[in-house]
Amino acid sequence: MDPIISVSGVTKTYKGGFQALKATDLEIRRGEIFALLGPNGAGKTTLISIICGIVKASGGTITADGHDIVRDYRAARQAIGLVPQELTTDAFESVWATVRFSRGLFGKPPNPAYLEKLLKDLSLWDKKDERIMALSGGMKRRVMIAKALSHEPTILFLDEPTAGVDVELRRDMWEMVRRLRENGTTILLTTHYIEEAEEMADRIGVIAKGEIVIVEEKAELMRKLGRRELTLHLQTPLETLPEGLKAWDLTLTDEGNSIVYAFDAQAAETGISALIRRLAELGLDFKDLQTRESSLEEIFVSLVRDSK
């Protein structure tokens, strides 16, 4: 299946000489949720703005739903809905009026039934006659999503969609994004919340200093780059690790009460059984053990650090 978004060799250098994007290649699959992670200034918003036609690229080509974003701008832009970081909408308009106006901007004929369903899906229907200025931050964020979806795009960009939103509302929005994907919308989101990408994304891309560092299936990324740790809580604390344990990658923690063993869970031999036998041979008893897998946040921090 052809990608719904194809980015090829795209660069962006501003007049002052700052290179926000180096030659960037990226493909987004139709119907997926793709999370783009990166620190501030990494190029996330620049890349999204170029794809959406807000910022002009210095080089390269992009197609959106089969349309070149420069040669066939109108059709490409109609395929895209964008929810920017900043809450920018007419504060004095009602929810209904602003969403209806957004649909008209794309030349779509009136469709009150579609807009009603959209507002109901976003839990905004009971707010339809209220002015934007009277809404909470979370409700304003939902209105921005409703505006972005008003013209029935096939692609939705969410740039930091849950910034400033409380935990409960964030969870509600995650569920809403999943429903959109189930209805066939392709979603690309940028986020500072690592757990957001871990919770929702099918694939994850990491960008640092204007370069895509890695693009991978979420599960595969966790498998390739994640590590597991085995923690053994000792019966009697140690001052130092015995020489007989040098063969393992061990760390003494918790004031000598615990030994932490870092291992590759995918390896044919993890070394755990041999370690436990060696502990018994050395007369080191433990009262409890537990394992922990690297989080996506730890993987992300590692990738960004390695790119410096």
Automatic annotation (TrEMBL):
Residues 5-234 form the ABC transporter domain. GO terms for molecular function: ATP binding. Signal peptide: none annotated. This is ABC-2 type transport system ATP-binding protein. The keyword Transport applies. The keyword ATP-binding applies. Keywords: ATP-binding, Nucleotide-binding, Transport.
